[in-house]
Structures are given as structure tokens and as C-alpha cells.
Known about the structure:
By secondary structure, this protein is of the alpha+beta class. It is built from 4 helices and 11 strands. Helix 2 (99-109) packs antiparallel against helix 3 (113-119). The termini are far apart.
Amino acid sequence: LLWPLASRAGSADEGLDALMALLAQRRHGEADYTQEQFLSVLQRPLKSAGELVYDAPDHLEERTRIPRSQSFVLDHGLLTINDGKRTRTLPLQQAPQVAPLIDSIRATLAGDRPGLERTFELQFVGGLTHWQLQLTPRAASLRASLTRITLQGAGDQILEVTVQQRDGDRSLMHITPRA
């Protein structure tokens, strides 16, 4: 009775390994994004749009154009935040409100399974043509605010990121890779 379950678990593990290997091959990527943040204190979602840039293994940029210009740049563990008026640079670990999200995307893009597994329990569904990776926080301190991050994609492209907060707030980012 347990053999089919073990077979599926092994298959998901092999699928995740194959995805991580494929993602690790990508050295650069650029994409446009739209994001909606559903917050319990607001009647309508907050909408934003911009571009994402990735250079392996640990350079990630989010440049927001709409509703206002701002940027987040992660480079070698340093996070630089520019809100259009001022710029701050700090180690990613000193930004606990955004660190799990930024590092989950960076580690996924880099195909860094051990890095992901240090912070999250991983659940992989699908195959390389269409996949979903659910990240559930391991640490109680992170679980206090974050329920899960779900990434969906095809091949070596992340196409959607959903962040579910413990308080019910969530964000949904749609990503359109540039050719």
C-alpha cells in the first residue's frame, strides 16, 4: 500500500531536482511584472508594475514604475532600497519583512535547493513544462507572519508568485519574461 506513495514522493523529489538543475543553468533574466496586494485594511487591492532583473547567482532587482518609482536591489547579500527620495543599503538579514520573499526568489532562480531548504519546507508538483513550488516557513518566528510562498512556472521561468501572510493578507505577482 505504501509503495505508490513512496513512488510519487520520489517522483516529486526527482522533479524538484530537475527543476533546480535547470534553473541553476540560467545566468541572466529580465521580466516585466504586475502585482496586486490584497490587504484587509483596504477595499481594493494595491496594484503595481515594473521590471525584474536577475544575474546569477545572487543579483536580483525589482524596479517599480507604477504607482511610483522605487527599487529593491539585492547584490551579494546587501539590499539597496530606493524610494525615489532616498537610498538605504543594509544586509538582507536586517530586513526581516522582505528577506524571506527576496531570498526565496533568489534561491529559486539560482536553483539553490539547500538554500531554500534552510528556510522552507518544499513541496513540488508538476513537471518541467508546468510546475508549482510551495515554500512553507520552517522557523516559528517566520511562520508567525508568513503562511507560505507559492511559485508557479514553466521550464526555467517563474511566472507567478503568491505570498500568503498569516493575517490573511496576500500578494500576487504575475511575471512576463522578456525574450
